[in-house]
Amino acid sequence: MDDYLLQLPLHRSFHRALNAILDHLARQYGAAELASMFEAIARRVYAPLIAAVGTGGLAVLARHYTAVIRREDGDVAVRQSAGCLELDVLCDPAVRTIIDHGDRLSPHYHPVAINAVNRAIAQAAGLAYRVQFSEDPARYTHRWEQPS
Amino acid sequence: MISCNEFILVYNELFRELHDRHGPAAVQALWRFISETYCTTLDQAVRDDGLRGMHRYWTHTLGEEGGRYHLTLRDDEFIIDMHACPSVAKLRHTHVAPYADYCGHCPALYQPILERYGFDVEFSIIDPRRGACRLHVRDPRRQPQPAPGPADARPGGA
User: Fold this and answer.
1) Is A70 part of the contact surface with chain B (CB cutoff 8 Å)?
2) Listed residue (A52, A65, A45, A56) closest to A117, CA to CA
3) pTM
4) Is residue B155 predicted with pLDDT exceeding 50?
5) Model ipTM?
């Protein structure tokens, strides 16, 4: 993330707002259109990250997600080998915020806010991407691979 | 993960994406949804405590979000003089160009809630580029009453 954004105070309620917005948009436009909109949004919002990955490789992604997740008191473990990066998100602070507040986690949160957004970033950066979710909604594993 | 500090960028781009794909009415519908469904903390604060509830709500949220602003609370009015909106500042300090009606989301979200409880609301967008605006809420039930005229002042007068 941009250093400027990393240093700002946290207003965690924005996670709850996004969760609610996803439900509204899915009802209005359907799940496929919702995912398509967020893929387009991700390519614009994360354009600097995508460009940085293009020059700095997978290490840039590792630094980005580690910084973002730890800034919000989440937990993450990084495994990097030649051409491959795995990130175990042990506690996603956005998901934790939504659940701890007693909100119903949108069924579109993981497919869109996590999968579609990261898939769009990876595709734009020329990487293969997949995510493995678990029974704990705040815990999952990202995997990025550079094309051989 | 979309971090909470990246949310405003996503929010801004969502307005643009909705506008481009589904027209400006889709953006208005999103704002109406957020106001009616998500802004429940403000709704409850205003319902419970009126002007004091507004002051408490924005003291908390703006305290978290930052920015440069002044809040005024009097018996009959509540005012936010926003000199540098924290949300607009995030857009200005990053690569994302603000959606043309970005500032429109604030009156769309908050004004209906305040009016629901009988308050008069003036929302003035002063300078969207630097995020300057003014929210002026008056309680018509507490406005100073005109001084009684001679007929009203007569003892036993009706």
Assistant:
1) no
2) A45
3) 0.91
4) no
5) 0.94
| Nearest Cα residue to A38 out of A129, A97, A110 | A110
Q: How many CB pairs under 8 A join A and B?
A: 103
- State in Å, rounded, how far the first CA of chain B is from the last one: 69
- Whether the CA torsion A129, A99, B34, B98 is positive or negative: it is negative
Measured between CA atoms, the residue of chain A closest to residue B61 is A11
Distance from CA of A124 to the nearest CA of B (A): 17
A41-86 per-position pLDDT tens digit: 999 999 999 999 999 999 999 999 999 999 999 999 999 998 999 9
Instruction: Flag if A14 and B8 touch (Cβ within 8 Å).
Output: yes
**Which residues in chain A have their CB less than 8 angstroms from residue B6's CB?**
1, 5, 45, 68
Nearest of A66, A92, A93 to residue A77 by alpha carbon: A66
Instruction: Indicate the DSSP class of residue A139.
Output: -
How far apart CA A143 and CA A131 sit, in angstroms, is 6
CB nearest A14 (choices: B1, B7, B30):
B7
Nearest CA in chain A to B60: A11
> Cα distance from B94 to chain A (closest Cα, Å)?
8
